[in-house]
Each structure stands twice: as structure tokens, then as C-alpha cells.
Amino acid sequence: MAKKAVKSMRGIGESYDQVKQRYSICLTPTAHEKLKYFAQKKGVSLSELIEKIARTTIFLD
């Protein structure tokens, strides 16, 4: 069953109990390309892929 659409509002978390913050990370071009590939394969944004990996709700295979 699909989730009900939620309007994005600044300062209110949509998918999690926290609001996302901006962070900067350094990656090699190879790592960046592989992460983009996995994100596209899973149908999520790069940011969401990293979030899901950290929360162990998605696994790379």
C-alpha cells in the first residue's frame, strides 16, 4: 500500500522523527559513481540511500 503524500515543510521531518541537516563528505569519484548507481537501482536519492544504509533499512547487494 502506498504512503499518503506529505507536503514538505521546513523544520518538520517527513520520513523520520528528525529533520535532515546538511553535511559534507569527501568521496573518490569511483565511490560517488557506485553510490549513485545503487541509489538509482533502489529508486531513492543519494541522500536517502546513505540514510537507509546508516539506519540499516536497506542493504547493498
Task: Tell me the strand percentage band.
Answer: under 5%
Shape: globular
Helix content: 25-40%
The N- to C-terminal Cα distance equals 25 Å
Helices and strands: which structural class? mainly alpha
Mean pLDDT: 81
Counting DSSP E segments of at least 2 residues, the number of strands comes to 0
**Order of SSEs:** HH
Runs in which pLDDT lies below 50 for 5 or more consecutive residues are: none
Largest sheet: none
Alpha plus pi helix count? 2
* Alpha carbon gyration radius: 13 Å
Task: Tell me what you see in this structure.
It is a single chain. With 61 residues, this protein is an all-alpha fold. The chain has a domain at 24-61. It is built from two helices and no strands. The protein has helices at residues 29-42, 46-54.
Question: What is shown here, in short?
Answer:
The chain has helices spanning 29-42, 46-54. The protein is mainly α.
